[in-house]
Amino acid sequence: MGVPDDWETVESWLRSETLPAMPKDTVLPALEKKFPEIPTLSNYRIDPPEDFWENFPKDTVLPEKVSAKLDTRKFSELIESHKPYLTASQVKRADKVLSDMEGGAEAYQKSVLPELSTLNTSSAYEWGELLTDKIASWVKEGYVKGPFDSPPFPGFRVNPLMAIYRNEKVRPVINMSAPKGKSFNENVDQVKLEKVWMDTAKSFSYKLKEVGGSALMSKFDIKDAYKTIPAKKEDWRLQGFQWLGKFFFETQMIFGAVPSVCNFDRLGNTMVEMAVQDSKIPRNLVMRTLDDIPVVGKEKDKVTERFSTSLQQACDHIGLRLAKDCPNNDKAFRNQKFGIVLGIGFNADSLEWWIPEEKADRATRVGLKALTSKCLNLEECQVLMGTMNDIGQLCPFLRQFLWSGNRFITDIGIYGPAELPEQAKADLGICLRIIQSARKGLPIASRPINPPLEALSFYSDAAGDSFVIVNGNRVSNSLPGDRGVACLLWDQGYRVSWWTQLTWPESFLKDAVDSKGAKFGSKSTTLECIGILLPFVSSPELVKGKQVVFNVDNMAVIFGWENNGVKFDTTATIILRTVRLAAAYLGTIVHIQHVPRVSNKPAELADMLSRKNSTTRETWSWVGGARRSWVRGPLTEWLKDPVEDWELPLKVLDCIKSKI
Q: Are 485 and 502 in contact (CB under 8 A)?
């Protein structure tokens, strides 16, 4: 689960009520302008006088054809020299890149879009000075044509301009998803787009851990990635915008346009495949997310050095620019033991990951504001949970504390804005404390894999209440003390080596109801989840440090385990959290898989043991020589009064700790 060896740290996450301090507001640095000679306006919502444009770069000559930013002749030579080593699909992709460079990439529009005129967003005016400077640099670099006094084409579309501030930079973005119902992106024929596969920080972490502490890392960043691919000439009219009363249009792929992703990805993919062939390294050591190319390998094999040399040579050959290595090992770096990859920091020596300060501050700020807010709307809650889920990809342990917040999103969608529920607040506090620890570093979690052959194989089954309908009413006909839950360990000698059995209290089976009024005797998912918990509470030494497989006949249990909670079933979610905490403490790796009811001998035995009236002499002959454990403690006490007790996981954990 990626938890630290020091369990006291985990305890502080779970039990402390201390929250991190609110990070100081970011002091925006004085961003450097490339065109200081352009006058600064007091109000960027008002069109300036004509003399404002005297020092603004101008490129108003309409080209007769698209302009390739890369050397197409050398790229063609590069493809030809590598064709013997590429697959047919890779060659086809490379040829499509060359075609896009020479004639422009497709916009994949389903129908002819009419002309459009929309207003820019408020963010564009808020960052007006720096936005103006950035547009000027685009014109200077040849990515944008303008400024024009009037629309340069018939049917010209003025798309809304917005500004995004991130990493001490202001990025102008043409919003190709607006206006709703009439936008460029909504008109894209998705069926024609090439599927794009992207690696994540999580997949990189798995690869780094598998390579081990002898690893070196490199990360490359392709500069102005989308601008390397031109748009078709007939699509230029679709890529327009207006600023300070003047008209502009982009000639290259646009950041924010749906087709830009696959149109650039073909180039990035092709360059990586050729560099892999030249460097003769395993392909699985190189990852890609559009313009970011991380690579990892053993230091003694010089994987990162060989790939770095090959990729740089190929890029230099065609004029594709790579970002310079960053002294902080952030945007780009080569052959390093630590660095930031896809927004997460990694240390190859300690095999840890960490959250960069700016990202951790942002997450903490979002979380603390949600905790103190008296009313969250849907968007605010989505931002909150999106932020926590993003960090949770590196910390599987954290994800179990997101269920209550994700459920709150559903409630907001139905009932409207509200204050964060108490349990969601408690879980968010745990997440914030984990984030504080992640600033310094947490162990990289192992990649989930199928259970090994030597994994312990448990079978469990639970029997719910039996009832009949009398005069339209449900009447229980279960025999007193008959029904319960059983779990057994089926060893590789095809025999039962351990088992336990727990009988439901009469009040639990027939009378107790949850907060929604559902009878516990009929909550099959909750009952089956309790079966999984039995080995942890009765014989924790049996599963400590082991890989274990639980075979169950309830699919909701499997989905609940995978999703860190059962949708709309709080008690089942509490039981599964109890299992997760116990497994984390004991170092147990849990696998849950489906087995049809009584489909094999151990499943049949578990089913029989869950009801006394079905436990036959043959059943006893199978389990008579096996070790039996008894279930006592917080779980049995909870069954007597089964309220939605979120403290149950900690109570059970304390009981387990007392036994180990």
A: yes
Q: Where does 337-406 show beta strands of DSSP type E? A: 338-341, 344-347, 352-354
| d(C-alpha 591, C-alpha 7), whole Å | 22
pLDDT in the model for residue 574: 98
Q: Position 425: which residue type?
A: K
pLDDT digits (tens, 9 = 90+) for 282-296: 999 999 999 999 999
Tell me the angle at which helices 648-659 and 570-586 cross, rounded to the nearest 10 degrees: 30
Q: What is the mean pLDDT of the chain?
A: 95
pLDDT (tens digit per residue) in 479-510: 888 999 999 999 999 999 999 999 999 999 99
Q: Is 163 exposed, middle or buried (0-12, 13-18, 19+ CB in 10 A)?
A: buried
The upper half-sphere exposure of residue 655, i.e. CA atoms within 13 Å in the direction of its Cβ, equals: 23
User: Tokens standing for 314?
Assistant: 């190929």
Crossing angle for the helix pair 422-438 and 357-372, to the nearest 10 degrees:
160
Cα(384)–Cα(596) distance, rounded to whole angstroms? 39
Average of per-residue pLDDT across 607-620: 94
Residues 6+ apart with CB under 8 A from 633: 537, 652, 655
- Name residues whose C-beta falls within 8 Å of residue 458's C-beta, 6 or more positions apart in sequence: 487, 488, 489, 490, 532, 535, 548, 549, 550, 551
Q: What is the DSSP letter of 105?
A: B
What pLDDT does 29 receive?
61
Radius of gyration of the chain (CA): 30
* pLDDT tens string 418-429: 999 999 999 999
pTM: 0.92
**Dihedrals phi, psi of 589, to nearest 5 degrees:** -100, 120
